[in-house]
Amino acid sequence: MREEALAAAECVACQVNADEDRYDELGARLTRRPPSAAVTVARGSSDHAAGYFAYLSLVRGGHLVTSLPMSSVTLYRAPINAAELLVVSISQSGRSPDLCVPLERFRAGGATTVAFVNETSSPLAGAAEWVMPLHAGTERSVAATKSFICSLVAGARLLANWSGDAELRGAVRDLPAALREACTQDWTSAIEVLKDSQRIMVIGRGTGLAIAQEAALKFKETCGIQAEAFSSAEVRHGPMALVEEGYPMLVFAPRGPAQADLLALARDMRERGAHVLVAAPADVGERQLTLSKSLLPDLDPIAAIQSFYLMVESLARARGLDPDTPRHLQKVTSTL
């Protein structure tokens, strides 16, 4: 897991220098024939990447992207009108039927189907009209790291071409540098706080919410910690009733419109007795964990999860667990 997480910057460098004509062509297609709606089809970490793509598409491009309710096509056979839809599926392996079956049906119904997939000879790639390779290389670890980061980048690339966003396109190309810097951030202080924890809340908001969701999943997968992710707004509606003296919380507070609220929540939770770890840029005095910056605040969450992955891998080992072989899990999960 650690080796693969550290390789993410070079995988992203490979991706952003590949398939430019393909992204240009798809962007031009979406401009000529704007989709009536857009949906994502994904599971697990890939669904978190889809959530980031959806939020980024809305706040930067004004495109409303929704997540397909899973099982609606495979089990309930919902009569969805696929004509003029944009359907984006995300997967490392591309082998799960709950992704392939919906994409096949959407394509047959006239949708523009896109697969962000690492294994380009997979059934998912075969089901899609547009195959966008992740270029993450072989990923042996059960816990996805570099493929997740490459999925985030692929979504940002698609949006940049779909919306004609030259600023975003340039910032995406600079991401390898931000990821390399993120690998040098020292997050070891979190290990002492969390090595004996049995539960944790992970907080994000806006473009950072998907990163909080991914972090919570990795706490569960690799460390056996019961982790839940919430928006800083959502947590005030009920979940904060769980907070008691010493309750651990990790708050991702990257740059952007949501940062002030995230920091305010962190202060409030500390007053209630929680043990709060704030991950924020170096100029935020309240931070315990430092986040690297990219060229655009909307891309900062990508660097944030890079630093987190290295910490959580070490945390698992500090808890006496092997993050490379989490119990009960396997690399490919086949569901409908």
Relevant terms:
Rossmann fold, 15% strand, five-stranded parallel beta sheet, 44% helix, 336 residues, alpha/beta, 13 helices, globular
Notes on the protein architecture:
This protein has 336 residues and is of the alpha/beta class. The protein has two domains: 2-173, Rossmann fold, CATH 3.40.50; 186-318, Rossmann fold (3-Layer(aba) Sandwich), CATH 3.40.50. It contains 13 helices and ten strands. Helix 5 links the parallel strand 3 and strand 4. The longest helix has 19 residues, at 300-318. The protein starts with a helix and ends in an 18-residue tail after the last helix.
Précis, in short:
By secondary structure, this protein is of the alpha/beta class. It has 13 helices and 10 strands.
